[in-house]
Specification:
heterotrimer; A alpha/beta (354); B mainly alpha (291); C mainly alpha (307); B: 291 residues; mainly alpha; 0% strand; globular; C: 307 residues; elongated; disordered N terminus
Chain lengths: 354, 291, 307
């Protein structure tokens, strides 16, 4: 069975996944419809327990859907797993896989063999990737001695061994410090830039990460996709105007002087500002489009005011989430504190001790 | 003392829950019945193959020794497997280590489950030997002081051996699961469990005589089955040439058990502390190995 | 639908040509492998998984004491049991051969059967399933890697014990002896693969059960005595346990097959039993592993991340 010529990178229709659990079954995914184009950097954003990891496990052929249709580049995840595994790879956050007694280089070579590289090609590819991810000095170090950030870079290199056409990243910066997380994000972007036709599916609950990396984002919660769009499109759901805060050295004529300019919806002193006439002056401007700002700046110049600071206020993706759901990421309901240790797949991972 | 007891008992509860499998009757029966009995039956068949039907005293000898040995096999695995389990699978070892409780005490508690399972297995094997195989046993002739003394020191020595193996496992990778069994198998050779020590060459007999478990087996065997063949003595044995008589007395058994047991226990604690120190120095407490 | 390229992601990115490796024209192109490529991948997967075992054995050598010297002493214990019973010398040979073969049985149990269960704990299992290779190759790689230690142990135990205890071999059919040995290993590894899948599904109970059943298996396999002495039980063992039938055949071939060394069935017939076992076990293993994967994917049991 071959894939259609112009297949979507990811296509799901009415995808459902139910876990049998006590006291009652957990619906991890509830009718998910998704369409990701080839070459896209797509994000799944949602709190813990939203179903992100469950979805990625289904896409990476580790889990079967309970119902619905799921295809990766046209290949069915239930019946064509072998084919999918040949062109995809995955990296998860907090991964502790591998064998501590091997060196970083040996570990990666071992995995290269699982993807069919010859022995020599494997060593060559491993050495290239080790340099590319910045682990040159740690190549000969045992895996058990790598720091968390180094380990994740190694995992990232592992994920690239087979030149995947689609790369699944399941919370890849989980547990990493700021610089390590930034390094991993840089690696992802550099890889994407080097091979622009490749697709990335990223799951995360870090809004800034999704905002920075993703071209389109699906916001998920309780197994459902609440909204899909580019970050800008999603934010416009919450706030259609462009909000700016200007700090001026002076504004003798007050906010009214610019409130009636074309494109200006409102211009009011900022909360906490000492009031008109005091310097410096802070104003909150609402514009119906960013382009209107130019006119405001010109008018302020005519009035003899100088802009000391200019800051755009944008809603965050959490604002979008709150708008959609009515609660923040941190305000999880009690039933959402699942026994899944925060991995969002609804599966009770706790082993019962006999 | 209260805090120490609390740590020990909490660890013991966990150890029993994890290792005893008492909630799974099939596994539990396999552990306490099938395993020790099979070990004894291997020897029974070996004896019968050679001696045919006239093997009564020999059968008794091997069954009693094998029965007691099953406690050693199960018991010495307690602490080392706990170290490997908690380090590699549950990733809990580091948390046990940094808790206020004494690390060795916690490990001791953790390993108690297997020792108890082994003890139950010993009792089952001896019972089957007496009831089914007809090993002569007269409860009225039991030397209770020697038995209590021997049983107590036996427990201590099994624990001490387990501590030494735990010390080894702190240093090595996770494929050490089979090390306790290998150690038990090796000790099987020099402790007179299933054949008299006198069969061995002189140097091995000497090794046996300084091994606490040798005296433990002899003491319990003598206490429970007075008059049975001695595993230590015998004509031409090293013991006979050193002591001037063929069969060790109860007093000799008790004193030798105390001396070797005390040295062995002290040595095991020293070895463990050294290993613990080295593990801490090299960051091995929370390492995960595996191949 | 046109997907906007985020300018920030492309502009100023450092060129990392190493990110471009094997070039395929499309996912469909990458998904299609020739038969040769598929077979090579399986063979390379075997090599890949054997690699950490061998490296680890060379890197950390405590196994030399615990896997060779101590087992030799354990085998010696049974030698001395027979000496205490003043048994004919052939029985010492039984014990020595049984002691050597124990190494392979332990390899199957500890290095194969329980391994998938431990791999899941370590987070490797899902990576194995996500890779385009068969799990049987991974298991076989584990066995091959463990073979390094097992073979070393078996050879040294056999060599030292033969020398120290004066065991005399009387082999007339070397080819058959070698074939029986290889077939015993093949059947054992097939059994190991079956156990690996069962352990993974049953969890720690299966592993505990195996630990508990070690001695019973030694008993019915006739590790230290001819299995024919067990009568019907021995016959059942020969029919089902590769170690029993392999040992029985090897003893007959190694020690002349007469008198106390006679076996339950002629060695040639036992070799055929081993062939049948190999075919059946490997087929069952393939079936069980495929069933295991489907079941694990359905129930979500491939990953256990939190303990």
């Amino acid at each position: 069975m071959s894939a259609p010529a112009s297949a979507l990178a990811i296509e799901t229709r009415a995808l459902r996944r139910v876990y049998r659990a006590k006291p009652k079954n957990v619906v991890a995914l509830d009718g998910v419809d998704l369409a990701v184009e080839p070459g896209e950097f797509f994000g799944l954003l949602g709190p813990n327990g939203a179903g992100k990891t469950t979805l990625i496990k289904i896409l990476t052929t580790l889990l079967l859907p309970t119902s619905g249709e799921v295809r990766v580049f046209g290949f069915d995840v239930e019946r064509q797993t072998k084919q999918i595994r040949r062109f995809m790879n995955m990296v998860a956050g907090g991964e502790q896989s591998g064998y501590g007694i091997l060196t970083c280089r040996e570990q990666l070579w071992m995995f290269s063999q699982f993807y069919g590289l010859s022995g020599r090609d494997g060593w060559r590819r491993v050495d290239e990737l080790i340099e590319a991810v910045g682990l040159g000095e740690q190549a000969g170090q045992r895996v058990s001695t790598l720091s968390t950030g180094q380990r994740q870079k190694m995992n990232f290199a592992r994920g690239l061994l087979n030149d995947p056409w689609i790369f699944f990243l399941d919370e890849p910066t989980l547990g990493l410090d700021v610089s390590a997380a930034r390094a991993v994000r840089e690696l992802v972007l550099d890889w994407k830039a080097a091979v622009p036709g490749r697709t990335v599916l990223l799951t995360t609950h870090y809004m800034a990460e999704a905002d920075e990396l993703c071209e389109r984002i699906a916001i998920v919660d309780h197994g459902r996709v609440l909204a899909i769009g580019t970050p800008a499109e999603l934010k416009r759901r919450v706030q259609r105007e462009s909000i700016f805060r200007l700090v001026l050295d002076r504004l003798d004529s007050g906010a009214a002087a610019i409130a009636h300019l074309p494109g200006v919806l409102s211009a009011v002193p900022a909360a906490g500002d000492g009031g008109e006439g005091r310097q410096p002056v802070a104003l909150d401007l609402a514009l119906d489009d960013d382009a209107a700002l130019g006119g405001v700046v010109v008018r302020l110049g005519d009035l003899g005011s100088h802009i000391v600071a200019l800051e755009k206020s944008e809603p965050s993706l959490e604002d979008v989430f709150v708008e959609l759901v009515g609660r923040g990421f941190a305000d999880e309901d009690e039933p959402a504190r699942r026994a899944d240790g925060g991995h969002g797949d609804g599966l009770d991972h706790r082993e019962e001790v006999a | 003392m209260t805090a120490a007891w609390r740590s020990f008992s909490a660890a013991a509860r966990i150890g029993w829950a994890v290792d005893a499998n008492w909630t799974d009757p099939f596994v539990f029966l396999a552990l306490v019945v099938a395993k020790p009995l099979s070990a004894a039956l291997i020897l029974v068949v070996m004896v019968q193959v050679i001696s045919g039907g006239n093997a009564g005293p020999l059968i008794a000898f091997v069954v009693v020794g094998s029965g007691l040995w099953s406690m050693v096999t199960a018991g010495i695995a307690g602490l080392p497997l706990s170290v490997l389990d908690d380090r590699e699978r549950y990733r809990m070892l580091k948390y046990l280590y940094v808790s206020p409780a004494d690390f060795l005490l916690v490990l001791l508690g953790r390993g108690v489950g297997r020792i108890l399972v082994g003890a139950v297995g010993s009792v089952v094997t001896l019972a089957v030997g007496i009831v089914v195989l007809g090993i002569p046993f007269d409860p009225g002739r039991i030397d209770w002081p020697l038995f209590v003394w021997g049983a107590g020191w036996g427990f201590v020595m099994v624990v001490a051996l387990s501590v030494v193996l735990a010390a080894v496992c702190l240093q090595v990778r996770q494929e050490a699961w089979s090390y306790p069994e290998a150690a038990a198998g090796a000790l099987f050779l020099v402790t007179g469990a299933v054949f008299p020590l006198g069969v061995l060459p002189g140097p091995l007999q000497a090794l046996g005589l300084i091994t606490p478990l040798t005296w433990w087996i002899a003491a319990v065997r003598t206490a429970l089955f007075p008059g049975s063949p001695s595993s230590i003595g015998g004509e031409g044995s090293l013991f006979a040439s050193l002591a001037g008589h063929v069969v060790p007395t109860s007093a000799e058994l008790a004193i030798a058990l105390l001396a070797t047991g005390a040295v062995g226990t002290l040595a095991s604690v020293v070895v463990f502390r050294l290993s613990e120190r080295r593990a801490k120095d090299r960051g091995l407490i929370d390492q995960t190995t595996g191949s | 639908m046109t997907v906007p390229v985020r300018a920030a992601s492309a502009a100023g990115r450092s060129a990392r040509p190493a990110f471009v490796g094997r070039v395929t024209s499309s996912p469909a192109d990458a998904a299609v492998w020739s038969r040769r490529q598929a077979i090579l991948t399986e063979l390379r997967a075997v090599r890949g998984r054997a690699y950490p075992r061998v490296r680890a054995a060379l890197r950390e050598k405590s196994w030399v004491l615990f896997e060779i010297l101590l087992p030799f002493l354990a085998t010696s214990a049974f030698v001395f049991v027979y000496r205490a019973l003043q048994a004919p010398p052939e029985y010492v040979g039984f014990v020595v051969l049984g002691g050597a073969m124990t190494a392979f049985w332990l390899n199957v149990v500890w290095m194969m059967a329980a391994q998938l269960y431990w791999e899941r704990d370590q987070g490797n299992l899902e990576l194995y399933f996500a890779a385009p290779m068969n799990l049987m190759s991974v298991l076989f790689g584990m066995a091959v890697g463990g073979l390094f230690m097992s073979s070393t142990r078996a050879v040294i135990v056999l060599a030292i014990a033969t020398y120290v205890y004066g065991v005399t071999f009387s082999v007339s059919e070397w080819a058959l002896l070698l074939a029986v040995f290889v077939l015993t290993l093949a059947a054992l590894y097939g059994l190991g693969m079956i156990l690996a899948s069962l352990f993974l599904m049953w969890g720690r109970e299966a592993w505990q059960l195996t630990q508990a059943l070690m001695e019973p298996v030694y008993f019915v396999s006739g590790l230290n005595f001819p299995v024919v002495r067990l009568g019907l039980l021995g016959a059942l063992a020969v029919a089902t346990i590769p170690l029993a039938v392999g040992l029985d055949a090897m003893r007959q071939l190694a020690f002349g097959g007469a008198g106390p060394t006679s076996g339950l069935l002629p060695p040639g017939l036992e070799a055929l039993v081993l062939v049948a076992m190999t075919v059946v076990f490997l087929s069952l293993a393939r079936f069980f592993l495929a069933t295991l994967e489907q079941r694990a994917r359905r129930e979500g049991r491939l990953t256990v991340r939190w303990r």
